[in-house]
C-alpha cells in the first residue's frame, strides 16, 4: 500500500469541496493528474455515488475508475489499467479531534494484478512515483484549501 497524508488548516468540508471540484483541478494542481471528470456529465464530484465512474487523465495514461464510496469522510475508487493492474484508492477527510477546522487528509492506494509488485512498495519505481505524486497533490490541496478557508473566514 502507498499512502501520503498532510494536515490542512481548513475544515474537512472545505477540503473535500475543493478536491472534488474536478473542473477547477488545474487551477490549484499542476502535476501528474491532468484532469478528472465524471463519465456522466450530469454528475459532479460531490454528487458521485457507488457505481458511478470517473475518467482521470494522468500524465502517462487515462484510467476509468468505479466509485466505491463517496461520503463526507472518504472517497474510494477502484480503477483497472489494461488488465495488468488495479488500484483501490481512498482519500480520507478526517477532522482533528481537538479542532474541527483542521483536516487530516490522507491518500492510500493498494494495487493488485500482475504488475502490483512494482507499485505497492514505496521504494520501487512505480510505488515511489505514486507516493511522490500523492505528496504533490497533498501540498497543492493544502495551499488552496487554506487560502479558501482564510478568505471565507474574513
UniProtKB/TrEMBL annotation:
Gene3D superfamilies attached to this UniProt entry: 3.30.530.20
Xref: InterPro entries: Polyketide_cyclase/dehydratase (IPR019587), START-like_dom_sf (IPR023393)
PANTHER family: CHROMOSOME 9, WHOLE GENOME SHOTGUN SEQUENCE, SRPBCC DOMAIN-CONTAINING PROTEIN
Name of protein: SRPBCC family protein
Organism: Kwoniella dendrophila CBS 6074
Amino acid at each position: 500500500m502507498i499512502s501520503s497524508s498532510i494536515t490542512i488548516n481548513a475544515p474537512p468540508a472545505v477540503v473535500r469541496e475543493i478536491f472534488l471540484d474536478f473542473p477547477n483541478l488545474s487551477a490549484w494542481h499542476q502535476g501528474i493528474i491532468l484532469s478528472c471528470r465524471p463519465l456522466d456529465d450530469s454528475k459532479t464530484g460531490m454528487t458521485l455515488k457507488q457505481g458511478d465512474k470517473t475518467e482521470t487523465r494522468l500524465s502517462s495514461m487515462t484510467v476509468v475508475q468505479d466509485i466505491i464510496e463517496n461520503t463526507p469522510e472518504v472517497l474510494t475508487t477502484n480503477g483497472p489499467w489494461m488488465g495488468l493492474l488495479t488500484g483501490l484508492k481512498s482519500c480520507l477527510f478526517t477532522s482533528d479531534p481537538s479542532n474541527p477546522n483542521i483536516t487530516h487528509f490522507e491518500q492510500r492506494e493498494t494495487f493488485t494484478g500482475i504488475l502490483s509488485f512494482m507499485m505497492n512498495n514505496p521504494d520501487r519505481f512505480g510505488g515511489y512515483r505514486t507516493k511522490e505524486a500523492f505528496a504533490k497533490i497533498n501540498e497543492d490541496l493544502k495551499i488552496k484549501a487554506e487560502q479558501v478557508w482564510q478568505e471565507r473566514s474574513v
